[in-house]
Amino acid sequence: MFRLLIAASLFMLLMLTGGCAREARQTQLMTENTTNVPENVSWCGTLRLPGKWQDDTPVGGLSDLAWDEDESLLYMISDRGWLHRVRLRFSGGELIGLDPLKTYVLRDRQGRALNEDAADAESMIAQRGNNGVRGDTRLLIGFERDHRIQHFYPNGKSVGKPLKPQGLRGASPEKGVEAMGRHKREGIIAGLENAPTGIDKSSTRLFSLGNEAEWTYPLLDESGNALTALETYGNDLLALERAFAPPAPLVISLRRVQLGSNAQIEVKTLAQLSSGDGWRLDNFEGLTHLGGNRYLMVSDDNFRLVQETLLTCFELPSP
In angstroms, what is the C-alpha Rg of the chain? Predict the structure, then answer.
Protein backbone atom coordinates (compact mmCIF):
# COMPACT_ATOMS: atom_id res chain seq x y z
CA MET A 1 0.00 0.00 0.00
CA PHE A 2 2.83 2.36 0.93
CA ARG A 3 4.48 1.72 -2.45
CA LEU A 4 1.20 2.46 -4.21
CA LEU A 5 0.88 5.78 -2.35
CA ILE A 6 4.45 6.72 -3.25
CA ALA A 7 3.86 5.82 -6.88
CA ALA A 8 0.62 7.80 -6.97
CA SER A 9 2.32 10.81 -5.39
CA LEU A 10 5.16 10.70 -7.94
CA PHE A 11 2.65 10.43 -10.77
CA MET A 12 0.75 13.47 -9.55
CA LEU A 13 3.99 15.42 -9.13
CA LEU A 14 5.04 14.56 -12.68
CA MET A 15 1.64 15.56 -14.00
CA LEU A 16 1.75 18.89 -12.19
CA THR A 17 5.32 19.77 -13.13
CA GLY A 18 4.86 18.50 -16.67
CA GLY A 19 1.79 20.70 -17.13
CA CYS A 20 3.60 23.77 -15.86
CA ALA A 21 6.65 22.98 -17.97
CA ARG A 22 4.54 23.26 -21.13
CA GLU A 23 3.35 26.80 -20.35
CA ALA A 24 5.00 30.22 -20.46
CA ARG A 25 6.01 31.41 -17.01
CA GLN A 26 6.68 34.91 -15.75
CA THR A 27 10.26 35.73 -14.82
CA GLN A 28 12.62 38.74 -14.79
CA LEU A 29 15.83 39.76 -16.50
CA MET A 30 17.00 41.61 -13.42
CA THR A 31 18.18 39.83 -10.29
CA GLU A 32 18.93 41.14 -6.82
CA ASN A 33 22.56 41.47 -7.91
CA THR A 34 21.93 43.39 -11.15
CA THR A 35 23.92 46.60 -11.58
CA ASN A 36 24.23 49.16 -14.39
CA VAL A 37 20.48 49.37 -15.02
CA PRO A 38 19.72 51.71 -17.97
CA GLU A 39 17.48 54.57 -16.87
CA ASN A 40 15.97 55.04 -20.33
CA VAL A 41 14.50 51.52 -20.61
CA SER A 42 11.24 50.51 -18.90
CA TRP A 43 10.56 46.79 -18.51
CA CYS A 44 7.01 45.53 -19.05
CA GLY A 45 7.25 41.80 -18.40
CA THR A 46 9.34 38.75 -19.28
CA LEU A 47 8.17 35.20 -20.02
CA ARG A 48 10.20 32.00 -20.01
CA LEU A 49 8.81 29.85 -22.81
CA PRO A 50 8.66 26.04 -22.57
CA GLY A 51 10.66 23.69 -24.76
CA LYS A 52 7.39 22.34 -26.16
CA TRP A 53 3.77 23.40 -26.30
CA GLN A 54 1.12 21.18 -24.76
CA ASP A 55 0.74 19.26 -28.05
CA ASP A 56 4.50 18.41 -28.10
CA THR A 57 5.32 20.98 -30.80
CA PRO A 58 8.96 22.15 -30.30
CA VAL A 59 9.27 25.82 -29.35
CA GLY A 60 13.06 26.41 -29.30
CA GLY A 61 15.41 27.98 -31.82
CA LEU A 62 13.39 31.20 -32.15
CA SER A 63 15.20 33.71 -34.33
CA ASP A 64 12.71 36.55 -34.87
CA LEU A 65 9.26 37.99 -34.13
CA ALA A 66 6.60 39.86 -36.13
CA TRP A 67 3.60 41.68 -34.65
CA ASP A 68 0.32 41.76 -36.59
CA GLU A 69 -1.61 44.72 -35.22
CA ASP A 70 -4.76 44.04 -37.29
CA GLU A 71 -5.08 40.50 -35.95
CA SER A 72 -3.52 41.15 -32.50
CA LEU A 73 -1.23 38.18 -33.17
CA LEU A 74 2.44 37.56 -32.60
CA TYR A 75 4.35 35.45 -35.13
CA MET A 76 7.51 33.67 -33.96
CA ILE A 77 9.88 32.03 -36.45
CA SER A 78 12.34 29.22 -35.71
CA ASP A 79 15.62 28.60 -37.50
CA ARG A 80 14.28 25.12 -38.25
CA GLY A 81 11.40 26.52 -40.27
CA TRP A 82 8.58 26.42 -37.69
CA LEU A 83 6.18 29.37 -37.68
CA HIS A 84 4.25 29.86 -34.41
CA ARG A 85 1.19 32.05 -33.97
CA VAL A 86 0.43 33.14 -30.40
CA ARG A 87 -1.87 35.52 -28.56
CA LEU A 88 -0.24 37.71 -25.92
CA ARG A 89 -1.82 38.41 -22.54
CA PHE A 90 -1.24 41.73 -20.78
CA SER A 91 -2.48 42.96 -17.41
CA GLY A 92 -1.97 46.53 -16.29
CA GLY A 93 0.38 47.04 -19.23
CA GLU A 94 2.58 44.09 -18.23
CA LEU A 95 3.12 40.95 -20.29
CA ILE A 96 1.86 38.10 -18.09
CA GLY A 97 1.34 35.19 -20.49
CA LEU A 98 0.62 33.92 -23.97
CA ASP A 99 -1.66 31.41 -25.63
CA PRO A 100 -0.22 29.31 -28.48
CA LEU A 101 -2.71 29.09 -31.34
CA LYS A 102 -1.11 27.23 -34.22
CA THR A 103 2.28 26.13 -35.52
CA TYR A 104 3.06 25.72 -39.22
CA VAL A 105 6.03 24.31 -41.10
CA LEU A 106 7.43 26.60 -43.79
CA ARG A 107 6.62 25.16 -47.23
CA ASP A 108 7.44 25.89 -50.85
CA ARG A 109 4.87 26.93 -53.46
CA GLN A 110 4.00 23.29 -54.13
CA GLY A 111 3.22 22.75 -50.44
CA ARG A 112 6.34 20.70 -49.63
CA ALA A 113 8.12 21.30 -46.35
CA LEU A 114 11.42 23.15 -46.80
CA ASN A 115 14.54 21.06 -46.26
CA GLU A 116 17.00 21.87 -43.48
CA ASP A 117 19.23 24.22 -45.49
CA ALA A 118 16.30 26.07 -47.06
CA ALA A 119 14.39 26.41 -43.75
CA ASP A 120 17.05 28.29 -41.74
CA ALA A 121 14.94 31.41 -41.12
CA GLU A 122 16.65 34.26 -39.27
CA SER A 123 14.58 37.44 -39.77
CA MET A 124 10.94 38.35 -40.35
CA ILE A 125 8.55 41.28 -40.69
CA ALA A 126 4.78 41.38 -41.12
CA GLN A 127 3.59 43.26 -44.19
CA ARG A 128 0.08 44.78 -44.36
CA GLY A 129 -0.29 43.88 -40.68
CA ASN A 130 -1.26 47.42 -39.68
CA ASN A 131 -3.49 48.69 -42.47
CA GLY A 132 -6.87 48.19 -40.78
CA VAL A 133 -7.70 45.21 -43.01
CA ARG A 134 -7.87 41.72 -41.56
CA GLY A 135 -6.82 38.64 -43.47
CA ASP A 136 -4.30 40.19 -45.89
CA THR A 137 -1.07 39.84 -43.87
CA ARG A 138 2.04 38.51 -45.59
CA LEU A 139 5.29 37.59 -43.86
CA LEU A 140 8.64 38.54 -45.34
CA ILE A 141 11.32 36.13 -44.09
CA GLY A 142 15.09 36.25 -44.47
CA PHE A 143 17.19 33.07 -44.59
CA GLU A 144 20.82 32.04 -44.24
CA ARG A 145 22.71 29.08 -45.71
CA ASP A 146 20.37 29.30 -48.72
CA HIS A 147 20.65 33.11 -48.74
CA ARG A 148 17.40 34.73 -49.82
CA ILE A 149 14.37 36.78 -48.73
CA GLN A 150 10.91 35.40 -49.45
CA HIS A 151 7.21 36.13 -48.91
CA PHE A 152 4.97 33.65 -47.06
CA TYR A 153 1.31 33.38 -46.18
CA PRO A 154 0.56 33.27 -42.43
CA ASN A 155 0.05 29.50 -42.81
CA GLY A 156 3.70 29.02 -43.79
CA LYS A 157 3.27 28.55 -47.55
CA SER A 158 5.62 30.59 -49.73
CA VAL A 159 4.38 33.22 -52.18
CA GLY A 160 6.23 34.04 -55.38
CA LYS A 161 9.88 33.62 -56.22
CA PRO A 162 12.64 34.25 -53.64
CA LEU A 163 14.45 37.59 -53.68
CA LYS A 164 18.24 37.61 -53.91
CA PRO A 165 19.29 41.27 -53.72
CA GLN A 166 22.84 42.50 -54.31
CA GLY A 167 23.19 43.24 -50.60
CA LEU A 168 23.57 39.49 -49.95
CA ARG A 169 26.83 39.26 -51.88
CA GLY A 170 29.81 37.95 -49.96
CA ALA A 171 27.75 36.67 -47.01
CA SER A 172 29.20 33.56 -45.37
CA PRO A 173 26.88 30.52 -45.08
CA GLU A 174 25.92 31.09 -41.42
CA LYS A 175 25.96 34.91 -41.48
CA GLY A 176 23.03 35.86 -43.66
CA VAL A 177 20.01 38.18 -43.33
CA GLU A 178 19.79 38.16 -39.56
CA ALA A 179 17.92 41.47 -39.33
CA MET A 180 15.06 43.21 -41.15
CA GLY A 181 13.15 46.35 -40.27
CA ARG A 182 11.03 49.04 -41.86
CA HIS A 183 12.48 52.54 -42.28
CA LYS A 184 10.12 55.45 -42.90
CA ARG A 185 12.07 56.83 -45.88
CA GLU A 186 14.08 53.89 -47.20
CA GLY A 187 11.46 51.15 -46.84
CA ILE A 188 12.53 47.66 -45.80
CA ILE A 189 16.12 47.50 -44.57
CA ALA A 190 17.98 44.19 -44.20
CA GLY A 191 21.19 43.60 -42.31
CA LEU A 192 23.77 40.82 -42.41
CA GLU A 193 24.76 39.25 -39.09
CA ASN A 194 28.47 39.84 -39.58
CA ALA A 195 30.83 41.33 -42.14
CA PRO A 196 30.58 39.89 -45.66
CA THR A 197 33.62 39.57 -47.90
CA GLY A 198 35.26 42.93 -48.52
CA ILE A 199 34.08 44.72 -45.34
CA ASP A 200 36.10 45.28 -42.19
CA LYS A 201 35.26 42.69 -39.52
CA SER A 202 34.23 45.40 -37.07
CA SER A 203 31.28 46.30 -39.30
CA THR A 204 28.53 44.71 -41.35
CA ARG A 205 26.21 45.70 -44.21
CA LEU A 206 22.72 47.18 -44.22
CA PHE A 207 20.84 47.44 -47.52
CA SER A 208 17.47 48.58 -48.81
CA LEU A 209 15.23 46.10 -50.61
CA GLY A 210 13.70 48.93 -52.59
CA ASN A 211 16.49 50.98 -54.17
CA GLU A 212 19.39 48.69 -53.10
CA ALA A 213 21.12 51.54 -51.25
CA GLU A 214 23.76 50.29 -48.82
CA TRP A 215 25.30 51.39 -45.53
CA THR A 216 28.27 50.08 -43.54
CA TYR A 217 27.02 49.47 -40.02
CA PRO A 218 29.65 49.79 -37.22
CA LEU A 219 29.33 47.04 -34.62
CA LEU A 220 30.24 47.68 -31.00
CA ASP A 221 33.67 46.46 -29.95
CA GLU A 222 32.50 43.45 -27.91
CA SER A 223 33.85 39.89 -28.19
CA GLY A 224 31.71 37.80 -30.56
CA ASN A 225 29.42 40.70 -31.40
CA ALA A 226 26.84 40.50 -34.21
CA LEU A 227 23.79 42.34 -35.53
CA THR A 228 20.71 40.22 -34.80
CA ALA A 229 17.61 42.39 -35.38
CA LEU A 230 16.25 45.69 -36.71
CA GLU A 231 12.94 47.46 -36.07
CA THR A 232 11.20 50.78 -36.59
CA TYR A 233 12.11 53.51 -34.08
CA GLY A 234 10.30 56.71 -35.02
CA ASN A 235 11.88 57.90 -38.28
CA ASP A 236 14.93 55.74 -37.59
CA LEU A 237 15.73 52.11 -36.75
CA LEU A 238 16.33 50.23 -33.53
CA ALA A 239 19.14 47.68 -33.76
CA LEU A 240 19.71 44.71 -31.49
CA GLU A 241 23.29 43.45 -31.12
CA ARG A 242 24.36 40.31 -29.27
CA ALA A 243 27.92 39.61 -28.15
CA PHE A 244 28.55 35.98 -27.22
CA ALA A 245 32.08 34.62 -26.80
CA PRO A 246 32.48 32.54 -23.60
CA PRO A 247 34.07 32.98 -21.13
CA ALA A 248 33.45 36.70 -21.84
CA PRO A 249 30.09 38.00 -20.52
CA LEU A 250 27.03 37.89 -22.77
CA VAL A 251 26.22 41.47 -23.81
CA ILE A 252 22.96 42.70 -25.37
CA SER A 253 22.94 46.20 -26.91
CA LEU A 254 20.06 48.37 -28.13
CA ARG A 255 21.14 51.06 -30.60
CA ARG A 256 19.47 53.84 -32.56
CA VAL A 257 20.34 53.85 -36.28
CA GLN A 258 19.96 57.00 -38.35
CA LEU A 259 20.30 56.42 -42.09
CA GLY A 260 21.40 59.28 -44.32
CA SER A 261 21.80 59.56 -48.06
CA ASN A 262 25.07 58.69 -49.81
CA ALA A 263 25.68 55.76 -47.45
CA GLN A 264 25.88 58.03 -44.39
CA ILE A 265 24.97 56.36 -41.10
CA GLU A 266 24.98 57.37 -37.44
CA VAL A 267 24.57 54.77 -34.69
CA LYS A 268 24.05 55.64 -31.02
CA THR A 269 23.94 53.12 -28.17
CA LEU A 270 20.78 53.49 -26.08
CA ALA A 271 21.33 50.67 -23.58
CA GLN A 272 23.63 47.77 -22.81
CA LEU A 273 22.90 44.73 -20.66
CA SER A 274 25.71 42.42 -19.55
CA SER A 275 25.56 39.10 -17.78
CA GLY A 276 28.69 40.31 -15.99
CA ASP A 277 26.48 42.92 -14.29
CA GLY A 278 24.05 40.32 -13.01
CA TRP A 279 21.52 40.45 -15.86
CA ARG A 280 19.72 37.18 -16.57
CA LEU A 281 20.30 37.10 -20.30
CA ASP A 282 20.32 34.61 -23.13
CA ASN A 283 20.94 34.59 -26.87
CA PHE A 284 18.57 37.46 -27.84
CA GLU A 285 18.09 37.46 -31.61
CA GLY A 286 14.55 38.60 -32.40
CA LEU A 287 12.80 41.96 -32.09
CA THR A 288 9.39 43.39 -32.99
CA HIS A 289 7.59 46.70 -32.53
CA LEU A 290 4.27 46.53 -30.65
CA GLY A 291 3.37 50.17 -31.29
CA GLY A 292 4.28 53.45 -29.62
CA ASN A 293 7.69 52.93 -28.01
CA ARG A 294 7.00 49.37 -26.86
CA TYR A 295 8.94 46.34 -28.16
CA LEU A 296 9.38 42.62 -27.66
CA MET A 297 12.66 40.73 -27.96
CA VAL A 298 13.20 36.97 -27.87
CA SER A 299 16.17 34.68 -27.27
CA ASP A 300 17.20 31.59 -29.23
CA ASP A 301 17.93 28.68 -26.87
CA ASN A 302 19.67 26.68 -29.63
CA PHE A 303 17.71 23.67 -28.31
CA ARG A 304 20.15 23.39 -25.39
CA LEU A 305 18.99 22.54 -21.88
CA VAL A 306 21.42 25.07 -20.40
CA GLN A 307 19.78 27.94 -22.34
CA GLU A 308 16.34 29.56 -22.14
CA THR A 309 13.79 31.03 -24.52
CA LEU A 310 12.99 34.42 -22.99
CA LEU A 311 10.32 36.77 -24.37
CA THR A 312 10.82 40.27 -22.97
CA CYS A 313 8.71 43.42 -23.25
CA PHE A 314 10.36 46.83 -22.91
CA GLU A 315 9.73 50.50 -23.65
CA LEU A 316 12.13 53.17 -24.88
CA PRO A 317 11.82 56.95 -24.72
CA SER A 318 10.47 58.74 -27.78
CA PRO A 319 13.23 59.18 -30.37
Answer: 20
